[in-house]
Design brief:
The structure holds two protein chains of two kinds.
Chain A (H helix, E strand, L loop, with lengths): L1 E2 L13 H11 L3 E4 L3 H5 L2 H29 L2 E3 L7 E6 L10 H14 L6 E6 L13 H10 L9 H7 L9 E7 L16 E6 L6 E8 L4 E2 L4 E9 L5 E9 L2 E9 L4 E8 L5 E7 L8 E5 L6 E6 L4 H6 L5 E2 L2 E6 L12 E5 L6 H12 L4 E5 L6 H7 L3 E7 L5 E6 L19 E2 L2 E6 L2 E6 L4 E6 L2 E4 L16 H13 L7 E2 L9 E3 L5 E3 L8 E5 L2 E6 L12 H7 L1 E3 L9 E2 L1 H20 L1
Parallel strand pairs in A: 4-5, 4-6, 6-7, 7-33, 16-18, 16-19, 19-20, 20-27, 28-32
Antiparallel strand pairs in A: 1-3, 3-34, 8-10, 9-17, 10-13, 11-12, 11-14, 14-15, 21-24, 22-23, 22-25, 25-26, 26-27, 29-30, 31-32
Chain B lengths: L9 H4 L5 H15 L11 E7 L11 H7 L3 E6 L5 E7 L12 H18 L3 E7 L3 E8 L2 H13 L8 H11 L5 E6 L5 H13 L3 E8 L1 H5 L6 E5 L5 E4 L1 H25 L3 E6 L5 H14 L1
Parallel strand pairs in B: 3-4, 3-6, 6-7, 7-10
Antiparallel strand pairs in B: 1-2, 4-5, 8-9
Helix pairs in contact in B: 2-4, 4-5, 6-7
Classes of the chains: A alpha/beta, B alpha/beta.
């Protein structure tokens, strides 16, 4: 038998209390003189015997009542102790467990869980977001308890699926059981497939509701010095009630605060304008209990200058990428008529702007160029596409015939989640752009923009992208639109540094700067993982790392999802086996009261 | 004028200090309440006249006086008997029980009153006080000195010791040779068979026997409610008792005990009265006078 609150067992000593009270009362009992006890003695011995027995029984009832009450409070458990199993425990240490003292509760629950198994049961313990290596080995109970103590809360997100993929269970000595201890967000069970021939339990840690940042982003990549600087702050309320709070944004010497009320289950967007140029800063959301997603770091200073080579007639593209010296763009643009004679090694991006064809040598050189990291080729199709160029583009699209519709075509489908088009989400800007000439081609990569006639316009695959037209006056009126410059900038950036198209999240790796210094002077080298959110600086650049916003949605999975995934909820307070004897003891205690009352009435 | 009958109430009597006074007040009070006075005037020695009172026999009216004074007077005579009265007073520990007045106090007043009544009738009266054995024995005497010695013996009687009633009665029976009136005042808390046997031994010796069983009301009703430790006044033995649970049994047992005495004494033609400590004395005195009359 096991006790969940063994401290109460000390109360069993109070079982002696009724006896003590009885003896004390007896000592204090009034002495009454009487002429002769002969008659009292003569009263049937049986009756006196019964009275004495009754007194003893009442006393026993009272002692048992006290004992059973404390026994019940000590939460006796029967049956759990002898269970031998091979137990794979996943302790949720994602940042969502930072709600109130949830992680401490989870750790305690995991400890109780381990203690509840047989001494010779075997365990494997890992954190949901610990990033442990895949080394798998069974632990003893003591080792498992130690491991539980070592697992710390993190700013990571994580999924059970990923953990199970990383840790392949080997040679369980007993029936295998998986236990997840945490808040059980749906996100944590994304793509989860129940392990075969094993039970998957969930020890639920109750959580609350939350609201947090989704993104703080600049409107444009191109910044003009000393002009007002607009920033968009997006917040999401995951709760089913209106969430009031306050946004405070600090950037350099500027500080803006604004009260905000986020409707239930919705996102709210605030457009803030700073009076001057800003590089980086921190937004704080006041009015919430889960701290991790109440801070959002942003850094608008793009990475080091990227060299761009435009091969072809050039013209508007060059001006778009480097419009004027006073504009701070991250590009150094060079133009060549032909590729053959150029040394392409120093460049990060090569733009083939309406080039009719490539030589075989040029094709090989470009292929080699694309094999290098952070290199990209962007091809705009002009009036003619030669054989070699078609072959070169074969892996991303099979080029067909040129199309010149009567009138013009407009954009029909745009992937606004792509970095290049993200700023235009919710606007009609791109829908109004007219395209007069373009190419019909069969895509082999991912199309991020398509025209209304069913023609793909932009298709990309890895670091090679093809645009079925040119950004020139004869081809499109985009060049007259305000969207032209940011679109070109973003399109080019998304190719060379795909990660620049998204925010850095905790769990990502530093991928282009050799050394970064983060919060608390922590140094991060190339390919090292960001473990905490904050601003990381190095090599004259600053990047912002934030927590994954979706982890802030504390909504736990529902019963249906549990059923579908075959997850059984396990209340540690109601243990399996014969179960919790607390109620049984309590009922016995009540029965003792009843028996005592009956004895008193007899 | 104070009502002399009030002294028949034991509670009133307890307030007085002098035993002789108590005895006299009881008897006078008792006698003044009798409508008939058959107990005076059976000897030939003139005692006094007194006005006729309703209830007096017509034949006792002195017609000569009536002829002279036109009033009815009764002529009273001093009684002359050779009656010997023996009062046996139990002063064992159990007699010390009582709430307002103890059984022994009641018994003492009763004994004194009876002694005075007999003395007043010019009968010889003696007393024996006892517990486990005879403590005082004063042979019967009709003299005042004898009466005073009786009062003295009664006065100093204090409850003590255990009851050994049957043995003591046997001893007394040996001592009392001459036929007389034996008055036993006791709670009779002893083995009834042995006690009755001892009482009957007086009967065999031609004595008239009067048994007064003195009890406290609580000994019959057992009105206690609180659980308490009861201790025996004689043996000092203790016993935890929950009165509520044994009251009925106790009352039944006590009723059986009293009934046993009543029935068997009646069978033996022995007068028996149960007196509670709140019972007026006239009941006992009346019984005594009736018994005396039978002896004369």
């Amino acid at each position: 038998m096991k006790f969940l609150a063994p401290g109460y067992l000390l109360g069993l000593a109070l079982m002696a209390l009724p006896v003590i009270i009885h003896l004390w009362y007896r000592r204090r009992m009034k002495k009454v003189p009487f002429s002769s006890l002969e008659f009292l003695k003569k009263i049937e011995a049986r009756k006196l015997g019964w009275l004495r027995l009754r007194e003893i029984l009442i006393l026993a009832c009272r002692c048992l009542l006290v004992g059973l009450l404390f026994f019940s409070l000590s939460r006796p458990q029967l049956g759990g102790e002898n269970r031998r199993a091979s137990v794979f425990i996943i302790l949720d240490n994602t940042y969502s467990m930072g709600y109130a003292d949830n992680f401490a509760q989870a750790r305690k629950a995991a400890g109780r869980l381990i203690a509840g198994y047989a001494p010779n049961a075997e365990f494997y313990v890992t954190g949901l977001a610990s990033g442990d290596s895949g080394d798998f080995f069974w632990m003893t109970r003591a080792e498992a308890q130690e491991k539980i103590k070592k697992i710390e809360p993190t700013f990571h997100s994580g999924t059970v699926t990923k953990v199970l993929d990383q840790h392949l269970v080997r040679d369980p000595a007993y029936p295998l059981e998986y236990v997840y201890v945490g808040d059980g967000q749906e996100l944590n069970f994304r793509d989860f497939i129940p392990p075969p021939a094993a039970i998957f339990y969930w020890v639920r840690i109750r959580t609350g509701s939350n609201a947090g940042f989704v993104q703080v982003s600049p409107r444009e990549l191109v910044r003009r010095a000393a002009e007002s600087y607009p920033v968009t702050v997006r917040l999401r309320n995951y709760a089913s009630k209106l969430w009031p709070g306050r946004i405070e944004v600090t950037a350099g010497s500027f500080f803006i605060q604004k009260d905000n009320r986020i409707p239930a289950g919705q996102e709210a967007e605030e457009a803030l304008t700073f009076p001057g140029n800003i590089r980086c800063g921190e937004a704080v959301w006041l009015g919430d209990s889960l701290e991790a997603d109440n801070h959002y770091y942003f850094a608008f200073n793009r990475p080091a200058i990227r060299r761009v080579l435009i091969v072809g007639p050039g013209g508007l593209l060059e001006r778009a990428l480097n419009p004027s010296p006073e504009l701070q763009t991250p590009f150094s643009v060079h133009t060549r008529d032909r590729l053959e004679s150029s040394d392409i090694r120093p460049y990060d991006v090569i733009i083939l702007d309406g080039l009719p064809d490539l030589t075989e040598t040029e094709t090989r050189r470009l292929d080699n160029f694309l094999t290098q990291k952070n290199r990209a080729v962007l091809c705009f199709l002009g009036d003619r596409v030669g054989e070699n160029l078609r072959k070169f583009l074969e892996r991303v699209a099979s080029i067909g015939e040129p199309v010149s519709p009567r009138g013009y075509a407009v954009l029909d489908q745009v992937d606004y989640d792509h970095y290049a088009f993200a700023p235009f989400k919710g606007t009609a800007t791109l829908k109004e752009v007219k395209f007069y000439k373009f190419w019909n081609f069969t895509r082999r990569g991912r199309a991020i923009a398509a025209l209304n006639a069913g023609y793909d316009l932009v298709v990309l695959r890895d670091n090679l992208a093809v645009v079925g037209t040119r950004f020139e006056r004869d081809y499109t009126d985009l060049v007259y639109k305000a969207a032209f410059v940011p679109l070109v900038h973003r399109l080019v950036w998304s190719l060379i540094l795909p990660q620049s198209g998204r925010e850095y999240k905790v769990g990502d790796r530093s991928d282009y700067l050799k050394t970064l210094t983060g919060p608390r002077d922590r140094r991060i080298g190339l390919n090292e993982m960001f473990d905490e959110p904050g601003l990381y600086s190095g090599e004259g650049d600053t990047i912002a790392v934030n927590v994954a916003a979706e982890e802030g949605n504390l909504k736990p999975m529902g019963e249906n999802m549990q059923k579908v995934l075959g997850i059984r909820e396990w209340d540690l307070d109601r243990k399996r086996g014969l179960g919790d004897l607390s109620w049984f003891a309590l009922i016995l205690a009540l029965a003792m009261i009843l028996v005592e009352q009956v004895l008193l009435l007899i | 004028m104070p009502d002399p009958k009030k002294y028949l109430d034991p509670r009133v009597l307890a307030r007085l200090s002098r035993l002789d006074l108590k005895a006299r007040l009881v008897v006078e009070g008792f006698l003044s309440g009798l409508h008939q006075s058959p107990y005076k005037g059976f000897s030939q020695e003139f005692a006094d006249y007194r006005p006729y009172m309703p209830g007096d026999e017509i034949r006792r009216v002195d017609w000569k006086v009536y002829g002279r004074s036109d009033r009815f007077y009764i002529k009273e005579y001093l009684e002359e008997t050779n009656l010997r009265g023996y009062i046996l007073l139990d002063k064992s520990g159990s007699m010390g029980y009582g709430e307002k007045i103890t059984k022994l106090e009641y018994a003492k007043y009763l004994a004194a009153s009876l002694a005075y009544l007999l003395y007043r009738q010019k009968d010889g009266v003696g007393i024996a006080t006892f517990d486990t054995q005879i403590r005082d024995f004063i042979p019967p005497s009709a003299k005042k000195l004898g009466f005073m010695r009786i009062l003295e013996a009664v006065d100093k009687a204090q409850p003590s010791g255990e009851t050994s009633l049957a043995d003591v009665l046997s001893d007394i029976a040996q001592k009392v040779k001459r036929r007389g009136l034996v008055i036993l005042i006791s709670d009779l808390f002893d083995d009834p068979d042995r006690v009755l046997k001892a009482i009957r031994s007086f009967k065999y010796r031609k004595h008239e026997i009067l048994v007064y069983q003195v009890l406290d009301v609580r000994e019959r009703q057992f009105p206690f409610t609180e659980t308490a430790i009861f201790y025996d006044l004689e043996t000092k033995e203790e016993m935890a008792v929950q009165p509520d649970f044994i009251r009925t049994s106790f009352q039944k047992k006590m009723a059986e005990f009293l009934d046993n005495y009543r029935r068997r004494l009646r069978e033996a033609r022995i007068s028996y009265d149960t007196l509670y400590t709140d019972t007026p004395y006239d009941k006992a005195l009346f019984a005594c006078l009736q018994k005396r009359r039978r002896l004369l």
